[in-house]
Backbone:
C-alpha cells in the first residue's frame, strides 16, 4: 500500500515538473533541452493545440527525446523557433514511423523560424523529416522560414528535409522560405522538402535545396505529388527549381544568396553573414548581401567577372532617373511617388499613376493595394504592352517575382485598354496570385495573333477573388488551334472565385479553339466557382472546344447568357432573351436567386446591369401567383413599390392554384410522398407543417422524393428489357415551423432514405426528426435528406436529427442531416442544424453529412451523437467533402476533432448553446438549463448567457447583460448590433448600446 502510494506520488511530482513550463501570453517558453522534452510530453498527454516558442538554441546532447506529436495526439498548434537552432538531436529509430523534431502534426499546425542543425542526425523506418515526420488528417500545415542541415534517413520511404509525408494526401503542405543543405536518404520516394504533399492547397515557395537526395523519384527532387504547386524555388540539380551553383565557395561568399533574392538587395528574403554563415538563412538577423562593383541602376553588375559580395553596400551603383515615378533606364518604380492612405491603399487617378503602379508590381512589390479615384484611359501605355504582374516577354503561367498579390479596387471606375499582341498572354493583369480585384469595369480592345488573351487577366493562381467586374472588351484573335482566350480570364489555377461578373464585349476568334467568355480554361474543375454572373456579348464567334461561360468548371451558380450567342452553348446555365438586358429583368433575376443586392441598373440609362453601388436597385412591380411566380403584368422599376402576392386557395389543405400543401397529420405527409414519388405531382411544391406529426400508424413509408428504375418498353440486342434511371426529387420549399416528426420508421433494401429520400434545389427548414424515429437502408441515407441531386442549391436550415440511421454492414454515406451529394452536383447549405442520433454504417459516414461534395457551407451546426468509428473516413467524423470550397464555420462535435471539440458537460451546461449564439444577431438556439439536455430551436425555452465568472446561466443579470424595454427614459443614445451595424432601435437578442452618460453596455431585449 505504501509502495503504491509512493509510486503515485513520484509520478505526480515528475509530471508536475515536466509540465512546469513558463507561459507568456499563452505560449510555452522553451529555453532548455528539458523544456523541449516537457513540451513534447504535454502534447503526448493530449494537448496537441498548445503553442511553444524557443528562447535559445537547444542542445540535445545525451537527451532522450520523443518527437513532438503522435497519431494518438498530433501537434496542431504554433511553434516559433525565433530563429534558434536545435543542436545535437540524435533520433535513430529504425523501427519507428513519423520521426523528426515533430512526429505527427495536423491541420492548423504552424512551425516557423527554426533550424535543425548539422550536428543532428535523424533516422526512422518511414515518414522521416528534419522538422516533421508527417501529417495525419485534413486541413493545412504550414512551415515557414525553417531549415534542415542534418542528414535525414528513412529505411523505407518518404524522407525529406522539412516534412516526410502528408498521409493519405489529406493535409495540404505549405512550405515557405525554407531550405535544405544536407543529405536526404531513403530506399524510395525521398525529396529535399517533402516526400509527398497533400492534394489540396499544397505550396512550396521561395525555397532552396543545396544538399543531395538518394532514393529520389524521377525528377522530383524537391517534393512529390504533382498537385503541389511550386513558385520561385532553387535547386543545385535544377530539376524542380532554378539551378543554383553547387560550388561551396559560391554558397559561402554570398553569390547564391544574391541570386536567391533576384540579384537585388532592396527587398531580400534571404540573408547571410559573410565569413560566418556557410549558406543563406531566411532570417533578417543575418546580414543583407550586396554585390560590390560597378552596377547599373537596377543592381546588376556591369562586368560579371569583376563583382564580389559583402554585407556592406559598397557598390558604385548608377542612380535611377525617374520620370512620373518610373525609371527611364531600368523601369524601376519610385516608391515615394505616391503616399499610402490610412487603410494602406495607393490612390490612382491618372494613366501615369496606373503605369507607376504596374512598374511597382512588376519590380517585385506585388503585395500592394490600389484604389481608383477616376476613370483611366490606359490605351497609350497598353499600346506599348504595359501590363500589371508581368510583361510581353513571358508566357509562363506563374511569375513568383512579379505576379500581382494584393487588392485592386476599381471603386466603380473604368480602365480603357488597347493591345495589339503577337505574344502569348495579353491582358491588363498578366499574372494574378491570391489577390482580390473588385468593383472594376474594363473597356477597349485586344487584337492578338497568339494564345491566352484575357479581357481582365491572363492567368490567376492561388485563392483569388474577382467580384463586381464588368468587361466590355472586343477580343479579336487570328490564332488557329487551341488558343484558350477568356473574356475575363484566359487560364485559372487552384481556387479562384468569380462573383457578380459580366462579359458584355465581343470575341471574334473563329479559328481559336478552347475559349470562353469568362474563363478560357480552369485547371481546378471543382475548386473554381463562378456565381451570379452573366454573358451578354455583342458577338461571340469561337471555334471547336469552346463554350459560353467557362471550360472545365463545375460550379456555375445562378449564371445566365443571352440568346444572341449561337456559335457555342452551355447547358449548365440559363439562356435569357437579349431584350431583357435593358428592362431590368436580368438585374432582378441575378439578385433574387440568392437574395443579394450586388447588381444595380439605372433604368432608362443603363443598357445592362452593373455591380456598382452608385447605380440604383431594380425592383419588380406588379403581382405574383401564390407560389411566388411573377405574373405577366410585372414590370421593373428603380422605385421599391412591392409585388402583390395572391393568397393560396386551399381545399382539403391543398391549394387548387399551385398545389401547395398544409400538413397536419401523418396521412397527409404520406400522401405528399406518394404523390411526388409516383410522379403524380412535380416535386416543386410549397409545404407547411402546422402540427407535430406522429407516424406510428404509417407502414412502408419511404420518404419524400425517390430514385428508381423504370422500363422503357424497349429491348437490347439480347432481347433484355432496357430500363432508365428515374429521379423524382423534392425540389420545393418545406417549412416545418419548428414541429417534430415522431415514430417515423423507414426500412428499405435500397439507398436514398430519409424524411426526404431525394432532394434537388430544395429549401428544407424548421423540422426535427426525433429520437423515436429510425432509418434502415443500404446506403446514402440521413434523418433529413438521404440524397441531394442536380446542380441547384440545397438549403437545410434549422433542422435536427435525433433518429437512428443505419445503412447496414456494407453501406456507405449514412449521416444525420445529409447522406450524400450525388456526383457532387449540388451546392449544399446546412445552417443551424444538429445531430444527436446514432449513425451506423460500413464506411464513409459522418455526423452531419456522409458526402457534401465539392462546394458547400456548413454553418453553426453541432453533433453529440455517435458515429461508429469503423465507418468514419480518417478524421472526417463531422462531414466528408472534397476540395477547399467547403466551409465549416462555427461547428462543434463531442466525438472527433474535425471541427471545434466540446464535451458532453459543455452540451449540458449551456456552453455549447452560448457558443452557437455568440456571434448571432439574435439567439438561434435555446436551452433551459437543468431541464434541456442540449440546445433546442424552441424560443419558449431560455436564452443562455455566459456569466462573469465563466459559467453559464439563463439569468441575463449574471452575465452583466441588462434586459431593457425601449423608452425615452432608458437613457439609450445609440444602438448597435453585435457586428457593429447601427440600429434604429433595440433588436431582439443582444444589443450593444451607448448610454447618455457615455457608458457602453450589452442589453438583451
Residues:
Amino acid at each position: 500500500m505504501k509502495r503504491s502510494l509512493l509510486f503515485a506520488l513520484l509520478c505526480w511530482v515528475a509530471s508536475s515538473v515536466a509540465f512546469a513550463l513558463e507561459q507568456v501570453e499563452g505560449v510555452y517558453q522553451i529555453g532548455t533541452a528539458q523544456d523541449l522534452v516537457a513540451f513534447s510530453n504535454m502534447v503526448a498527454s493530449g494537448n496537441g493545440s498548445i503553442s511553444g516558442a524557443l528562447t535559445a538554441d537547444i542542445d540535445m546532447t545525451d537527451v532522450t527525446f520523443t518527437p513532438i506529436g503522435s497519431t494518438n495526439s498530433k501537434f496542431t498548434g504554433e511553434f516559433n523557433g525565433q530563429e534558434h537552432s536545435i543542436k545535437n538531436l540524435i533520433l535513430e529509430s529504425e523501427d519507428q514511423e513519423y520521426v523528426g523534431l515533430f512526429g505527427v502534426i495536423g491541420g492548423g499546425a504552424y512551425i516557423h523560424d527554426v533550424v535543425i542543425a548539422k550536428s543532428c542526425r535523424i533516422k526512422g523506418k518511414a515518414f522521416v523529416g528534419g522538422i516533421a515526420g508527417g501529417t495525419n488528417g485534413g486541413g493545412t500545415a504550414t512551415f515557414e522560414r525553417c531549415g534542415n542541415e542534418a542528414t535525414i534517413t528513412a529505411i523505407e520511404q518518404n524522407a525529406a528535409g522539412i516534412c516526410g509525408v502528408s498521409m493519405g494526401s489529406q493535409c495540404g503542405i505549405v512550405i515557405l522560405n525554407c531550405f535544405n543543405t544536407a543529405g536526404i536518404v531513403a530506399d524510395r520516394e525521398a525529396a529535399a522538402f517533402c516526400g509527398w504533399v497533400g492534394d489540396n492547397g499544397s505550396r512550396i515557395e521561395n525555397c532552396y535545396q543545396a544538399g543531395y537526395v538518394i532514393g529520389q523519384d524521377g525528377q522530383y527532387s524537391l517534393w512529390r505529388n504533382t498537385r503541389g504547386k511550386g513558385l520561385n524555388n532553387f535547386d543545385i540539380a535544377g530539376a524542380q527549381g532554378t539551378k543554383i551553383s553547387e560550388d561551396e565557395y559560391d554558397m559561402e561568399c554570398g553569390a547564391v544568396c544574391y541570386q536567391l533574392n533576384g540579384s537585388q538587395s532592396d527587398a531580400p528574403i534571404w540573408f547571410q553573414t559573410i565569413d560566418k554563415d556557410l549558406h543563406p538563412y531566411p532570417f533578417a538577423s543575418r546580414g543583407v548581401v550586396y554585390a560590390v562593383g560597378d552596377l547599373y541602376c537596377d543592381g546588376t553588375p556591369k562586368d560579371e567577372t569583376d563583382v564580389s559580395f559583402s554585407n556592406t553596400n559598397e557598390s558604385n551603383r548608377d542612380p535611377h532617373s525617374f520620370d512620373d515615378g518610373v525609371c527611364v533606364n531600368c523601369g524601376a518604380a519610385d516608391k515615394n511617388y505616391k503616399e499610402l492612405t490610412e487603410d494602406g491603399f495607393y490612390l490612382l487617378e491618372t494613366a501615369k499613376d496606373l503605369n507607376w503602379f504596374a512598374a511597382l508590381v512588376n519590380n517585385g512589390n506585388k503585395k500592394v493595394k490600389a484604389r481608383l479615384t477616376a476613370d483611366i484611359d490606359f490605351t497609350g501605355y497598353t499600346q506599348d504592352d504595359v501590363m500589371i504582374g508581368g510583361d510581353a516577354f513571358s508566357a509562363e503561367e506563374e511569375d513568383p517575382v512579379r505576379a500581382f498579390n494584393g487588392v485592386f479596387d476599381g471603386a466603380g471606375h473604368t480602365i480603357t485598354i488597347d493591345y495589339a499582341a503577337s505574344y502569348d498572354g495579353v491582358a491588363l493583369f498578366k499574372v494574378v496570385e491570391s489577390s482580390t480585384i473588385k468593383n472594376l469595369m474594363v473597356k477597349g480592345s485586344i487584337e492578338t495573333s497568339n494564345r491566352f488573351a484575357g479581357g481582365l487577366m491572363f492567368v490567376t493562381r492561388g485563392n483569388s477573388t474577382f467580384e463586381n467586374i464588368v468587361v466590355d472588351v472586343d477580343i479579336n484573335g487570328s490564332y488557329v488551334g487551341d488558343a484558350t482566350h477568356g473574356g475575363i480570364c484566359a487560364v485559372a489555377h487552384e481556387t479562384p472565385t468569380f462573383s457578380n461578373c459580366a462579359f458584355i464585349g465581343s470575341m471574334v476568334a473563329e479559328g481559336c479553339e478552347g475559349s470562353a467568355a469568362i474563363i478560357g480554361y480552369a485547371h481546378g474543375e471543382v475548386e473554381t466557382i463562378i456565381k451570379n454572373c452573366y454573358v451578354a456579348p455583342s458577338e461571340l464567334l469561337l471555334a471547336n472546344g469552346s463554350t459560353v461561360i467557362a471550360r472545365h468548371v463545375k460550379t456555375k451558380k445562378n449564371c445566365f447568357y443571352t440568346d444572341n450567342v449561337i456559335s457555342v452553348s452551355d447547358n449548365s446555365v440559363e439562356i435569357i432573351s437579349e431584350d431583357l438586358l435593358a428592362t431590368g429583368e436580368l438585374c432582378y433575376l441575378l439578385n433574387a436567386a440568392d437574395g443579394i443586392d450586388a447588381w444595380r441598373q439605372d433604368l432608362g440609362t443603363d443598357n445592362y446591369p452593373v455591380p456598382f453601388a452608385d447605380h440604383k436597385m431594380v425592383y419588380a412591380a406588379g403581382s405574383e401567383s401564390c407560389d411566388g411566380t411573377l405574373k405577366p403584368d410585372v414590370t421593373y422599376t428603380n422605385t421599391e413599390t412591392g409585388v402583390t402576392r395572391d393568397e393560396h386557395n386551399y381545399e382539403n389543405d391543398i391549394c387548387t392554384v399551385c398545389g401547395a400543401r398544409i400538413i397536419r397529420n401523418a396521412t397527409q405527409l404520406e400522401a405528399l410522398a406518394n404523390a411526388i414519388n409516383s410522379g403524380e405531382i412535380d416535386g416543386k411544391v410549397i409545404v407547411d407543417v402546422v402540427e407535430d406529426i406522429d407516424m406510428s400508424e404509417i407502414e412502408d413509408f419511404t420518404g419524400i422524393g425517390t430514385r428508381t428504375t423504370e422500363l422503357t418498353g424497349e429491348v437490347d440486342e439480347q432481347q433484355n428489357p432496357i430500363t432508365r434511371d428515374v429521379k423524382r426529387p423534392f425540389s420545393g420549399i418545406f417549412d416545418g415551423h419548428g414541429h417534430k416528426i415522431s415514430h417515423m420508421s423507414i426500412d428499405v433494401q435500397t439507398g436514398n432514405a430519409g424524411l426526404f429520400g431525394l432532394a434537388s434545389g430544395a429549401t428544407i427548414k424548421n423540422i426535427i426528426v426525433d429520437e423515436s424515429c429510425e432509418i434502415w437502408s443500404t446506403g446514402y441515407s440521413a434523418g433529413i435528406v438521404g440524397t441531394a441531386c442536380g446542380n441547384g442549391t440545397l438549403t437545410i436550415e434549422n433542422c435536427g436529427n435525433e433518429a437512428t440511421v443505419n445503412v447496414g454492414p456494407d453501406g456507405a454515406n449514412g449521416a444525420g442531416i445529409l447522406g450524400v451529394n450525388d456526383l457532387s452536383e449540388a451546392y449544399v447549405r446546412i445552417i443551424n442544424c444538429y445531430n444527436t442520433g446514432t449513425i451506423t454504417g460500413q464506411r464513409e459516414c459522418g455526423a452531419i453529412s456522409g458526402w457534401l461534395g465539392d462546394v458547400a457551407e456548413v454553418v453553426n451546426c453541432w453533433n453529440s451523437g455517435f458515429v461508429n468509428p469503423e465507418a468514419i473516413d480518417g478524421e472526417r467524423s463531422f462531414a466528408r467533402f472534397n476540395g477547399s470550397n467547403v466551409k465549416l464555420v462555427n461547428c462543434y462535435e463531442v466525438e472527433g476533432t474535425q471541427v471545434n471539440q466540446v464535451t458532453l458537460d459543455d452540451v449540458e451546461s449551456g456552453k455549447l448553446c452560448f457558443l452557437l449564439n455568440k456571434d448571432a444577431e439574435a439567439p438561434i438556439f435555446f436551452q433551459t438549463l437543468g431541464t434541456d439536455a442540449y440546445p433546442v430551436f424552441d424560443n419558449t425555452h431560455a436564452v443562455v448567457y455566459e456569466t462573469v465568472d465563466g459559467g453559464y446561466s439563463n439569468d441575463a443579470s449574471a452575465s452583466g447583460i441588462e434586459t431593457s424595454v425601449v423608452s425615452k427614459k432608458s437613457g439609450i443614445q445609440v444602438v448597435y448590433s453585435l457586428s457593429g451595424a447601427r440600429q434604429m432601435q433595440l433588436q431582439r437578442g443582444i444589443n450593444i448600446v451607448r448610454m447618455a452618460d457615455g457608458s457602453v453596455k450589452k442589453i438583451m431585449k
Residues 2-18 form the longest helix (17 residues). The radius of gyration is 32 Å. Confidence is low (pLDDT under 50) at residues 1-18, 964-969. The chain is about 10% helix and 35% strand.
